[in-house]
Task: inverse folding
């Protein structure tokens, strides 16, 4: 483009006509089209791609994109109680400072010599997560929790030589969709009933379904619905007694105050690190982790990169490299473990920065604050007539189900009204979990102030008790 | 004639400890706002709600470090890392290490992006949905296919999604059990084989003929009523365009299979040739490569997955629709494979790709592709003149966007390997990658210049290559013992494959080396 006018696009230096001519001359061709001589005419696309008018001016581009983005309303201008796998936590300034660094942002496949810093930062991420999780092996991040759970399941199947997984029926519908597609047709996924009172997995149902085919039992702490599965030991014991593995999904930000799954027998732990210093980014901040003990039979089943620490030719110098690279699909193609490619490494580095900043006390205090604020929210919400939170009689972390069944007002209508007051109400569960009736999943973190929680409660009770909900919308 | 300078480079070397070694009891990196007094009075410590068996009694063993020291640590680590913004990053062939425009970084840092929750009401995210929808329509034009999903979190995830759609399609036709084989080629990305195998497929790999192209006779022998589909790149990782690609897709279609196009190598052919004309049923583009989103040390990323009309119903849900007034999420895809990633994909990557395309427009995309090809053939001409280097296959022909070269002759004559040359290139501030495994091309190296680097920068890279080759012949020990100017010296890889010694975390390192903190 623009070559006729003699100006190169700023992103394409060698489109400057003189440079281009010089290079062509050196190759010995007259026209760039000649370089495409291997492409048959029948395959060549005639004409121009149908795209909008270009905006080569940086200012024009900025204006154009900002105008589109201005149509978004976000969780800063509104008061949001959305969670369900992507959470609004405070992102420390240094997290952004580091992940915006050109060196990390634009690096990729360098060797440990060019990219020593990338290897060290990701090794440190693995190591910091390992402390939080009390496990000795953590991978370089995979795409997200959905993928981490899926791969944990496939690992369990390879380790045990079995092909059936029992999974709590309270996991997120999104996650279950990913797991089901990732496992089909290799692994059978069977769901386990939960206790309608506590949400916990029904142990009798587990005992009746577990068999010599079972590779693993998968459950989450806290669950998608926010309650804690406190019988982790019993679940792991039943799995182990039957030769199966205990696989636990966990929200790592809870682990300052809640025991890591290793304490109740987990063999493989997975989850998402988005809460650890990464902005929500409309879901683009997700990144998954997998952790195990340092046993060869587990390590050799990871598909992921595993960065390890080693020595160099110089005494006292740390070097880094890929541990057991030959297990990966980079090493062995289809004979490797699943597959590996670009995933979510930058968020791993960011989570490492976050955990370094938080330290042991910070992560404890954060957990405590979230417990206090979410309990306060549940208590206050429950004071509204006809509304109950939490739905399940169990301890909760950060998220909880608000039961609106007795109000007879559909969550959809409640949320519509809340939106008019610049409040994003909790995720409507009535489609995904019809057996719960008219419920919503609320998320309260350290960023919510008392004043904001009180405002939610005030608006909710106004919305439910006054005329804001039109009669025709009321459930029969 | 001006001689190209050989830079007297030295990588930053901070001798920076491991983060745990920085701990000082009582230091704090960040303080958390505590719950308000009234909340505490109403709730208590909050932790009492936990049953005893769920309470973590001892704090996790994270380090205690003051804020500036944490900052300094990570800044120093960043300095010990060469991104495309610093490096002339043409030595990482297949990965399209192009310029990621800074304006796009400004755009993605807007709170209108960072502070969006993926479950917000559609009415509050019309801007985000508009970007997703419009990028989808751009990619339809660029590929000629009918609909894109921007959900997959990378190229390999998109390949897995293609394999999933291929399977779902055959399931719908009652042929899923019978059609249990996917065909790929040895010069296609390892994930074309590996992700399809993860979907339960047996893999049949077509090797190259004497010209470096996948052998069409081998393909004819491989297809059968067991064939589910083909996953293939074109140009392949050799940078050679397969001119009879439509014969490949025809053979697969005749056998009842579907054809998936891995467009990881699309950077040289944007606006030149499309998936549609080559009769592909599915394709994907890496938005983090071809469409300029930065690689971020390995993600986050997007593998934008496109399909023809008849496969739209199989895509992951949701896709974004537009009713003439507003954008909406469409979950109504009756044969959908489900999902391959949480929510809608990596929105910042999608936004950067949108902005990059808008900056260039149709002519600009074609110009980017053409210059990428010009740069590549310019380098090809230079490398062919380096003693000991060669460009196997397609003798005398031009290449598209990259070339897989060989140091075979140099290794024979000097004993110096690709790996050692790469180590020495690091001393000049450059990266040189070998190849995916297996090494079909002996002592391979793969260069892909993209459109982003100036002729002078390319010349500088070539002059470093020339220097290293000169040393290989005249002073091989210098190359063998390299790097000399990097952060660290020759790494001892022997522990990394040894379960007794490998250490994937600091705590494992301390345990295995019996070090007390």
Result:
């Amino acid at each position: 483009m623009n070559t006729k006018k003699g100006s190169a696009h700023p992103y394409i230096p060698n489109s400057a006509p003189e440079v281009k001519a010089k290079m062509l001359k050196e190759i010995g061709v007259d026209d760039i089209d000649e370089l495409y001589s291997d492409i048959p005419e029948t395959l060549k696309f005639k004409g121009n791609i149908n795209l909008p008018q270009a905006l080569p001016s940086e200012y024009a581009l900025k204006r154009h994109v900002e105008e589109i983005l201005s149509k978004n309303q976000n969780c800063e201008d509104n008061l949001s109680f959305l969670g369900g796998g992507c959470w609004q936590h405070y992102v420390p300034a240094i997290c952004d400072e580091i992940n915006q660094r050109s060196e990390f942002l634009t690096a990729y496949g360098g060797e440990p010599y060019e990219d020593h810093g990338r290897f060290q930062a990701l090794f440190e991420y693995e190591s910091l997560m390992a402390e939080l999780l009390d496990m000795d092996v953590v991978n370089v991040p995979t795409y997200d929790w959905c993928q981490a759970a899926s791969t944990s399941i496939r690992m369990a199947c390879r380790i045990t030589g079995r092909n059936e997984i029992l999974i709590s029926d309270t996991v997120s519908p999104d996650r279950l969709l990913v797991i089901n597609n990732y496992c089909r047709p290799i692994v059978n996924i069977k769901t386990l009933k939960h206790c309608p009172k506590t949400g916990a997995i029904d142990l009798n149902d587990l005992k009746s379904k577990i068999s010599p085919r079972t590779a693993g039992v998968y459950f989450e702490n806290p669950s998608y619905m926010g309650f804690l599965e406190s019988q982790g030991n019993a679940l792991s014991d039943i799995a182990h007694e039957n030769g199966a593995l205990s696989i636990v999904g966990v929200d790592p930000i809870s682990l300052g105050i809640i025991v890591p799954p290793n304490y109740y027998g987990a063999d493989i732990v997975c989850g998402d690190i988005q809460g650890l210093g990464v902005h929500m980014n409309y879901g683009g901040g997700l990144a998954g982790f997998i952790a195990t003990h340092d046993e060869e039979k587990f390590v050799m089943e990871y598909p992921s990169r595993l960065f390890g620490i080693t020595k160099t030719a110089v005494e006292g110098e740390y070097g880094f490299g890929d541990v057991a690279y030959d297990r990966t699909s980079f090493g062995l193609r289809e004979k490797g473990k699943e597959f590996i490619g670009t995933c979510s490494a930058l968020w791993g580095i960011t989570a490492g920065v976050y955990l370094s900043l938080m330290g042991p006390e910070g992560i404890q205090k954060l957990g405590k604050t979230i417990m206090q604020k979410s309990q306060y929210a549940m208590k206050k919400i429950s004071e509204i007539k006809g509304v109950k939170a939490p739905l399940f009689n169990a301890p909760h972390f950060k998220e909880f189900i608000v039961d609106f069944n007795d109000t007879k007002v559909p969550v959809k209508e409640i949320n519509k009204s809340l939106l008019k007051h610049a409040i994003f109400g909790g995720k409507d569960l009535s489609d995904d979990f019809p057996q719960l009736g008219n419920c919503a999943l609320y998320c309260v973190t350290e960023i919510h102030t008392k004043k904001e929680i009180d405002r939610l409660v005030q608006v909710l009770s106004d919305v439910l008790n006054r005329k804001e909900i039109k009669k025709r919308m009321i459930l029969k | 004639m001006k001689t190209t300078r050989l830079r007297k480079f030295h990588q930053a070397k901070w001798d920076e400890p491991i983060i745990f070694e920085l701990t000082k009891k009582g230091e704090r990196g960040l303080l958390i706002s505590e719950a308000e007094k009234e909340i505490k009075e109403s709730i208590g410590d909050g932790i009492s709600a936990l049953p005893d068996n769920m309470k973590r009694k001892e704090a996790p063993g994270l380090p205690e470090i003051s804020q500036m020291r944490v900052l300094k640590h990570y800044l120093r680590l960043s300095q010990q890392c060469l991104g495309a913004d610093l490096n002339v990053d043409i030595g990482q062939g297949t990965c399209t290490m192009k310029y990621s425009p800074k304006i796009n970084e400004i755009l993605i840092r807007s709170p209108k992006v960072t502070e969006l929750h993926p479950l917000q009401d559609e009415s509050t995210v019309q801007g985000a949905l508009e970007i997703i929808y419009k990028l989808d329509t751009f990619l339809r034009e660029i590929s000629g296919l009918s609909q894109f999903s921007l959900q997959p979190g990378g190229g390999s995830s998109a390949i897995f999604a293609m394999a999933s759609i291929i399977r779902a399609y055959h399931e719908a036709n009652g042929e899923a059990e019978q059609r249990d084989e996917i065909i790929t080629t040895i010069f296609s990305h390892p994930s074309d084989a590996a992700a399809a195998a993860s979907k339960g497929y047996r893999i049949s790999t077509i090797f190259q003929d004497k010209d470096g192209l996948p052998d069409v006779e081998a393909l004819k022998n491989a297809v059968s009523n067991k064939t589910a589909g083909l996953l293939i790149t074109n140009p392949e990782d050799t940078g050679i365009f397969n001119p009879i690609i439509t014969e490949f897709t025809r053979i697969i279609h005749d056998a009842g299979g579907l054809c998936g196009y891995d467009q990881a190598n699309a950077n040289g052919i944007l606006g030149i040739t499309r998936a549609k004309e080559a009769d592909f049923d599915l394709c994907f583009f890496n938005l983090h490569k071809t469409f300029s989103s930065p690689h971020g040390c390995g993600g986050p990323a997007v593998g934008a997955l496109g399909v023809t009309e008849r496969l739209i119903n199989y895509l992951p849900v949701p896709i974004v629709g537009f009713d003439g007034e507003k954008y909406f999420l469409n979950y109504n895809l009756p044969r959908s494979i489900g999902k391959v990633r949480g929510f809608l994909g990596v929105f910042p990557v999608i936004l950067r790709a949108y902005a990059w395309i808008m900056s260039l427009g149709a002519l600009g995309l074609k110009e980017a592709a053409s210059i990428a090809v010009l740069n590549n053939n310019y380098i090809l001409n230079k490398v062919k003149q380096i003693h000991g280097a060669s460009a196997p296959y397609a003798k005398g022909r031009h290449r598209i966007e990259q070339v897989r070269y060989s140091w075979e002759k140099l290794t024979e004559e000097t004993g110096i390997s690709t790996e050692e040359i790469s180590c020495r290139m690091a001393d000049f501030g450059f990266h040189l990658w070998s190849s995916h495994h297996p090494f079909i091309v002996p002592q391979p190296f793969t260069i892909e210049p993209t459109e982003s680097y100036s002729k002078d920068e390319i010349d500088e890279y070539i002059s470093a290559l020339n220097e290293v080759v000169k040393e290989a012949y005249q002073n091989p020990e210098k190359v063998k013992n390299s790097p000399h100017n990097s952060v660290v010296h020759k790494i001892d890889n022997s522990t990394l494959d040894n379960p007794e010694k490998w250490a994937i975390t600091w705590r494992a390192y301390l345990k295995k080396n019996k070090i007390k903190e």
In short: The CA atoms of residues 98 and 452 of chain B lie 5 Å apart. Chain B is about 35% helix and 10% strand. The longest strand of chain B covers residues 227-233.
